[in-house]
Amino acid sequence: MRIDIISVVPDLLASPFEHSIMKRAQQRGLLEVHVHNLRDFTPYKHGQVDDYPFGGGAGMVMMPEPLALAIEHLQQERKYDEVIFMTPDGICLEQKIANNLSLKENLIIICGHYKGIDQRIREHFITLEISIGDYVLSGGELAAAVVVDAIGRLIPGVLNDETSALSDSFQDDMLAPPVYTRPADFRGWKIPEILVCGDPKKVDAWRYEEALKRTQERRPNLLGAHED
Ligand code: ADE
Predict the structure, then answer these.
(1) Do residues 15 and 79 share a domain?
(2) pLDDT by residue (tens digit) across 19-58?
(3) 205 C-alpha to center of ligand 1: Å?
(4) CATH number, domain containing residue 90
(5) Is the shortest distance between the CB of 175 and ligand 1 below 6 Å?
(6) Is 145 near ligand 1, meaning CB less than 6 Å away?
(7) pTM of the entire structure?
(8) Cα–ligand 1 centroid distance for 5 (angstroms)
(9) Structural domain boundaries, residue 208
(10) Is residue 68 domain-shared with residue 177, that is, in the same domain?
């Protein structure tokens, strides 16, 4: 999978994909992340990419021309499955969306800044608008990093143990159960005995019950999510 991110602060995205699982995904040739500086595409003087909003009001708006030129430049090179805009008024990122996007070949992600981007770009170029939650960030870069991480780890071959993404929270509309590691007795706090009983079926049943209990307590809304 190839992901092209267009940003006015590309330095913000210099490090998030250079570590851990995202680094491994790229080293294995399963993921390519390219970050582009929007200012490289502006036809205006001094790298201008924003301007005052028509009708007045506070804040600046990202101009349509640099964004259109950046997107078209990429689209001339290859076909993209989605042109994604990170915005607090997009659809809220969920595991199902990440699962779906992890099957795509090429994605463009646009990071917004200031008061947002000119509406005509949203209407004529953007195919998917994603929010990472009901709060406002100073820009779309950190949100884009979240999306790339959430989908990158799902690309087949990225995680060593293929089942480990399947047992994540949310994959089956449930939160993940508690986990424990050594020592079995830490400051007198002992792990549940069943985890060392040696019977994988019993362990699985315990994990399922704990996941259900945790979901009922913390996120009961998830439990009905697959029933229409
Ligand atoms: N840009 C600013 N806030 C955002 C959010 N919550 N999600 C996605 N992009 C954003």
Answers:
(1) yes
(2) 999 999 999 999 999 999 999 999 999 999 999 999 999 9
(3) 39
(4) 3.40.1280.10
(5) no
(6) no
(7) 0.94
(8) 15
(9) 169-226
(10) no
